[in-house]
Amino acid sequence: EKSIPNDPGFTLTLNQKMNYMQMAKAVAFQLKTDPLLLQFFRPQVHRQLSDQAIRCSNEGCIRDFVVSRSRLDAAPYLFYQRLNIPINEFENKRWFKCVFVSLKLKEEKEFTIYVDKNGMIEDLLNEARKEITFSKDSTRVLRLLEVMGSRIIDVHPIDKPVAELVSQKMYRIEEIRSDELKLDEEEALIPVAHYQKIMHNTFGVPFLLKLKDGERISAIKGRIQSLLDISEKELDKWSFTIVSGVQSPVIISEENDDQLLLNHFNIFPAKGIMFPRMGMPWLGLDHINKNPKRSRYALERAIKIHN
pTM value? Predict the structure, then answer.
């Protein structure tokens, strides 16, 4: 099975002239499932990994779908995966891998969302609500973020077509805090990220922070401490900077209780620019990285189908 790392698979003896549905029924019988709840994938020619999906409307036969590995092992093989919806419906949808990040900035759950190909981000978020357990005082209002290299690079508006998203990416879904539901004219959300010494050494879970134009760093520091739930002693070891492009970070003076302006982050509410975009400056938290690394990827294994 495609979605199970190191799955040894199983073997079936099938006639190479069988069409798609005949093959699906035979595999479904082996797996004790509905043939419409299976999707099949061609294997890559030179590696034991899955390649393109085989559409259920394909008029070819098994010999058109499979590839033999070598002369020593001539058995052709395919990948499959189980579905939660019938394959004919599934093929009219787009899928997106998402991770839900809680208000405490913890990665709570990973899931895959299926949305109609002509749907909007709002439709994706509505489907995501079905996967999330909300607290009693939750706003239940979600937003979709794009994160790259432990930095938030985009906040996707709810009226954006899902066709403009990339299925291969992992998107982040998070709940909007109650104080962020309505922003005043002089307020906006700025991206914040952790890094160690060099601005490219970002790590951890980035987040959005509400900033009022001209707000002092002392007030911002207090909100960050509350949000991240860290001690004042630990926070005093951190430096606060404004990071923009390839330029050296600009240190924010805590001694002078510097003001932060929205235009420091290229945010101009009067022009309708209220959220982060690719290439925008961000608020940097410079401190030692104490977070372990993790990987979301796993090797795929094949199943064999003998003729």
Answer: 0.76
